[in-house]
């Protein structure tokens, strides 16, 4: 009366199942979380994917829908639960959980609400994956990356904010379109605070090493007759525009998180503009997170590139740092 | 006299330098070489409908790097533009250099593959026939436009009920039958392989098993063909798939039928699995692979079926579309199940107006 399984298959290697080596957890299965998950799956970056959320039905539904696509994927184990034990032994944990700003709500109030949520999430993540690298995506990302770092007790090189990785990708897309080339062939960084006051480093913008600023010294200023500054403005506005049109953004941020994940998992030492702890740089005296070009590898932020910034760019960074600290100092229970 | 000519010269030189510095960054940076019109796309994919299923198809096609141009079409213009922009913002991480969208089908011109996910879902208490007629009316606008702008394309129909709508699409398009495919039981089979493989502790790609016929409740699991490394499961357990099977393998097929309903109940819709399965079909068509997939094709003349209906059979897919159909060895019970589905589908189709 042997089962089909027993007749068909003879086990060879005994002992417990091998633990995962490249496990990724995504916390939060909203549109952003699922876009991150699908991008990571289709990029074949992980041997195990864990999903966590508080809404149990939706969580299970998303897990099943991904599992049903297993035939077409190279990630053999996809798990999900409200309980963080499913996240154990993750290399990378992507945090997309949190609440969005309500109409008329102050940023400080939003941040405090998200702090309360993160107080439940972050210690649990670290409990089950003490060696992980955390990528924080939830907004306002720079403040929440600081919050995550404080709540996690992890060294600063292992807590990253998605920061201006997406802003820079949008910038490169918009600039490259104007020049008729692929975005990967246009080099340009947006640094600092993710959002309205991000800093486009015009001095570094180049194609094949040819500096655009050398070709047009007015680039990025108000007196530029070509109005290149508008490209940065389009980057700042683009999130709002997509939200207005379709209700949220998810694909671009998902792809950018998969890009960061690839560098971390494969120990590539690629440079990405991500949010990192910048106290001590550019005269910043507070513990704040801002986006800088970081060399990422399997230990997290391996090092930071020292940018050659103009006085004005440095002043913008300092101003952002002050704004962020203004919010952070009033947060309770960190 | 000399002084004024000299001044004229200096003036001209200064004007020349000024004009030169008036050249744009683009002109200074880049010198065009090949002139002439832009190359048309060679591997263009269009997705009609940017709901959850359409976008999952689009993202899977993009991340699989199958297309050199992607076009999106829908009637809701805001959402359509938002989805296009969100994908374009990810261009840095993709190898599809052109992503376009529009309500007007001219954006779809010269597509190799067109994926149709548009249509309405069943309202509570609505008969299938009513749903089908509503979708026929929508397809009457969509399909002729698609064919007008991409007369050589292959159509993949995803919208449900997929077998009927693939028939409708074929009729409205005027295309030869080998160029109109329904996503059919490609997803059912993928779910079956996943669930069976889980029970056996192996990867779904190592479990071979086909679900054919009608997509949905009355799909037909071909138990005689199920195998791992060529070892037939039915030879190991002759009761497999029957009510007398002590291991109750039949339950796995039931789970496949129920799984769509379960996911819809839990998260409101399904999209990832269908998106991945459509990308899988697209890959075979684009790359002329001659891989075999269970997809919905016109089966009149096969298995004693005499009506023009679409049912899923194992089809060899290549760049012409359905290159050929694999002749399955089916039990008489399985053949009668197919015929029963065919009758039911024809019963719905014969009452459709304006095809």
TrEMBL record, chain A:
<keyword id="KW-0520">NAD</keyword>
<dbReference type="GO" id="GO:0005737">
    <property type="term" value="C:cytoplasm"/>
</dbReference>
<feature type="binding site">
    <location>
        <begin position="137"/>
        <end position="139"/>
    </location>
    <ligand>
        <name>NAD(+)</name>
    </ligand>
</feature>
<dbReference type="InterPro" id="IPR001236">
    <property type="entry name" value="Lactate/malate_DH_N"/>
</dbReference>
<dbReference type="InterPro" id="IPR001557">
    <property type="entry name" value="L-lactate/malate_DH"/>
</dbReference>
<feature type="domain" description="Lactate/malate dehydrogenase C-terminal">
    <location>
        <begin position="164"/>
        <end position="325"/>
    </location>
</feature>
<dbReference type="InterPro" id="IPR036291">
    <property type="entry name" value="NAD(P)-bd_dom_sf"/>
</dbReference>
<comment type="similarity">
    <text>Belongs to the LDH/MDH superfamily. LDH family.</text>
</comment>
<keyword id="KW-0560">Oxidoreductase</keyword>
<comment type="pathway">
    <text>Fermentation; pyruvate fermentation to lactate; (S)-lactate from pyruvate: step 1/1.</text>
</comment>
<dbReference type="GO" id="GO:0004459">
    <property type="term" value="F:L-lactate dehydrogenase (NAD+) activity"/>
</dbReference>
<dbReference type="Pfam" id="PF02866">
    <property type="entry name" value="Ldh_1_C"/>
</dbReference>
<feature type="binding site">
    <location>
        <position position="114"/>
    </location>
    <ligand>
        <name>NAD(+)</name>
    </ligand>
</feature>
<protein>
    <recommendedName>
        <fullName>L-lactate dehydrogenase</fullName>
        <ecNumber>1.1.1.27</ecNumber>
    </recommendedName>
</protein>
<dbReference type="InterPro" id="IPR015955">
    <property type="entry name" value="Lactate_DH/Glyco_Ohase_4_C"/>
</dbReference>
<feature type="binding site">
    <location>
        <begin position="28"/>
        <end position="33"/>
    </location>
    <ligand>
        <name>NAD(+)</name>
    </ligand>
</feature>
<dbReference type="InterPro" id="IPR022383">
    <property type="entry name" value="Lactate/malate_DH_C"/>
</dbReference>
<feature type="active site" description="Proton acceptor">
    <location>
        <position position="194"/>
    </location>
</feature>
<dbReference type="InterPro" id="IPR018177">
    <property type="entry name" value="L-lactate_DH_AS"/>
</dbReference>
<comment type="subunit">
    <text>Homotetramer.</text>
</comment>
<keyword id="KW-0963">Cytoplasm</keyword>
<dbReference type="GO" id="GO:0006089">
    <property type="term" value="P:lactate metabolic process"/>
</dbReference>
From TrEMBL, chain B:
<comment type="subunit">
    <text>Homotetramer.</text>
</comment>
<dbReference type="Pfam" id="PF02866">
    <property type="entry name" value="Ldh_1_C"/>
</dbReference>
<dbReference type="InterPro" id="IPR001236">
    <property type="entry name" value="Lactate/malate_DH_N"/>
</dbReference>
<keyword id="KW-0732">Signal</keyword>
<dbReference type="GO" id="GO:0006089">
    <property type="term" value="P:lactate metabolic process"/>
</dbReference>
<feature type="active site" description="Proton acceptor">
    <location>
        <position position="215"/>
    </location>
</feature>
<feature type="binding site">
    <location>
        <position position="135"/>
    </location>
    <ligand>
        <name>NAD(+)</name>
    </ligand>
</feature>
<keyword id="KW-0560">Oxidoreductase</keyword>
<feature type="domain" description="Lactate/malate dehydrogenase C-terminal">
    <location>
        <begin position="185"/>
        <end position="348"/>
    </location>
</feature>
<dbReference type="GO" id="GO:0004459">
    <property type="term" value="F:L-lactate dehydrogenase (NAD+) activity"/>
</dbReference>
<dbReference type="InterPro" id="IPR036291">
    <property type="entry name" value="NAD(P)-bd_dom_sf"/>
</dbReference>
<feature type="binding site">
    <location>
        <begin position="49"/>
        <end position="54"/>
    </location>
    <ligand>
        <name>NAD(+)</name>
    </ligand>
</feature>
<dbReference type="InterPro" id="IPR011304">
    <property type="entry name" value="L-lactate_DH"/>
</dbReference>
<keyword id="KW-0963">Cytoplasm</keyword>
<dbReference type="InterPro" id="IPR018177">
    <property type="entry name" value="L-lactate_DH_AS"/>
</dbReference>
<feature type="signal peptide">
    <location>
        <begin position="1"/>
        <end position="21"/>
    </location>
</feature>
<dbReference type="InterPro" id="IPR015955">
    <property type="entry name" value="Lactate_DH/Glyco_Ohase_4_C"/>
</dbReference>
<dbReference type="Pfam" id="PF00056">
    <property type="entry name" value="Ldh_1_N"/>
</dbReference>
<dbReference type="InterPro" id="IPR001557">
    <property type="entry name" value="L-lactate/malate_DH"/>
</dbReference>
<comment type="similarity">
    <text>Belongs to the LDH/MDH superfamily. LDH family.</text>
</comment>
<dbReference type="InterPro" id="IPR022383">
    <property type="entry name" value="Lactate/malate_DH_C"/>
</dbReference>
<feature type="binding site">
    <location>
        <begin position="158"/>
        <end position="160"/>
    </location>
    <ligand>
        <name>NAD(+)</name>
    </ligand>
</feature>
């Amino acid at each position: 009366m042997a089962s089909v399984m027993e007749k068909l298959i003879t086990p060879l290697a005994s002992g417990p199942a091998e633990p995962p080596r490249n496990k990724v957890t995504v916390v939060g299965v909203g549109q952003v979380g699922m876009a991150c998950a699908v991008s990571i799956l289709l990029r074949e970056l992980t041997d195990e994917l864990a999903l966590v959320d508080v809404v149990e039905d939706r969580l299970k539904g998303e897990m099943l829908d991904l599992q049903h696509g297993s035939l077409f994927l190279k990630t053999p184990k996809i798990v999900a639960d409200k309980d963080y034990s499913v996240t154990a032994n993750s290399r990378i944990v992507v945090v997309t959980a949190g609440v969005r700003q309500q109409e008329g709500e102050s940023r400080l109030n939003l941040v405090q609400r998200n702090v309360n949520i993160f107080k439940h999430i972050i210690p649990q993540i670290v409990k089950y994956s003490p060696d992980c690298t955390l990528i924080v995506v939830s907004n306002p990302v720079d403040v929440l990356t600081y919050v995550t770092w404080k709540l996690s007790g992890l060294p600063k090189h292992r807590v990253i904010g998605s920061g201006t990785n997406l802003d820079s990708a949008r910038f490169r897309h918009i600039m490259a379109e104007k020049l008729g080339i692929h975005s990967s062939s246009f080099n340009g960084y947006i640094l600092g605070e993710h959002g309205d006051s991000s800093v486009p480093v015009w001095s570094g913008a180049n194609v094949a090493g040819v500096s655009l600023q050398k070709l047009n010294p007015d680039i990025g200023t108000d007196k530029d007759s070509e109005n290149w500054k508008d490209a940065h403005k389009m980057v700042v506005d683009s999130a709002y525009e997509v939200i207005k049109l379709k209700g949220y953004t998810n694909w671009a941020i998902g792809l950018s998180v998969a890009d960061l994940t690839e560098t971390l998992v494969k120990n590539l030492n690629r440079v990405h503009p991500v949010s990192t702890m910048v106290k001590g740089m550019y005269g910043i005296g507070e513990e704040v997170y801002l986006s800088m070009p970081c060399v990422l590898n399997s230990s997290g932020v391996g090092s930071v590139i020292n940018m050659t910034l103009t006085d004005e760019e440095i002043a913008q960074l300092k101003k952002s740092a002050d704004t962020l600290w203004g919010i952070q100092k009033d947060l309770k229970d960190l």
